[in-house]
Amino acid sequence: MRGLWNNVAVRKHIILFIMAVVVMSGLVTNGKKVSACDFGSNIIKPHTDSNVFVGKALEIRGDKNGKDVFFEVYKVEQGTVKALAKVWTPPAGSSCGGFDFKVGEMYYVITIDTPIFPSKKVVMINTARPLLAEEKSEKEQIEGQSLLENFLKRTDVSVSINGEDLVMNRPYDYFYSNKDNRVMVPLNEAFVSRFGIEVTPINEDDDSVTLNYMGKAYTYQIGHNTVRIDENDFNIMDTVIQRFDGITFIPARQVADMIGAQLTWDNKLKKICFSF
Question: What is the pLDDT of residues 97-113, one digit of tens each?
């Protein structure tokens, strides 16, 4: 063994191996500091690309895999946060150790990622803690108030298809009643495929999305109340197409009319029913 150590080439490789192990250990330690699993009462120093804000938890949607938390933002210390922010956290009590947010409580939050609501990218929480009583302050005027107003006006509803209550798989797929009292449903494959409808990816150039059914193409544009059928025919809707966090929503009535379904509303259960 001593002979091996006296060999300069072997000794050099041993030293390099030890240095590599030390460096990798440091990376793991430092990595934990910026992990979505690193929660607790001690706030770490945010990175330059972090979002840092104070906000009230408005709504929590999730399942066993994690939670989407919607915040009404009161103060932005760093980043591009608007009046309504959505972040993701692992489930509390999991091996990852997610943060157990409570609706209505105020929090100080640091995220890992810069992009924030509305965004297709999941924005993960780096760390968070409840806001201390002495830290509470007046809400500041923050850009994006319309996002917050539209969110607060939503009333969640349920949907059934031919008598079967529909449950969506992902926490950010849901049904709601908008400010015009129209039930809105998500334009994703999990929902529209139940009716034999195909949906194409959104056209980022003009914010349009096209549905294909029985040889006809129905094109909608986010923020507008018109639908183009094939190339020449246009119809007017009584509300507009909306988009939240990368998910496009369409009036349930449009889906029913497209496939020739009967649409009824159960006011007691706040449920809309498709029958065909």
Answer: 567 788 888 998 888 76
Residues 111, 208, single domain; the answer is no
pLDDT tens, 252-267? Answer: 999 999 999 999 998 8
Write a three-state SS string for 59-71.
EEEEECCEEEEEE
d(CA 185, CA 176): 7
What domain range is 106 assigned to? 52-140
- 266 in the same domain as 162: yes
Q: Evaluate whether residue 46 is within a structural domain.
A: no
41 within some domain: no
Between CA 27 and CA 25 the distance in angstroms is 5
Longest dimension (CA), the chain: 88
Q: Residue 246: pLDDT above 60?
A: yes
pLDDT class of 32 with cuts at 50, 70, 90: very low
237, 250 in Cβ contact below 8 A? no
- Number of domains into which the chain is organized: 2
Most confident of 35-44, 109-118, 145-154, 220-229: 220-229
Sign for the pseudo-dihedral over CA of 33, 39, 44, 46: positive
Question: In sequence order, which residues have a C-beta less than 8 Å from that of residue 183 and are 6 or more positions away?
Answer: 157, 159, 175, 176, 177, 251, 252, 253, 265, 272
Output DSSP code: residue 170. Answer: S
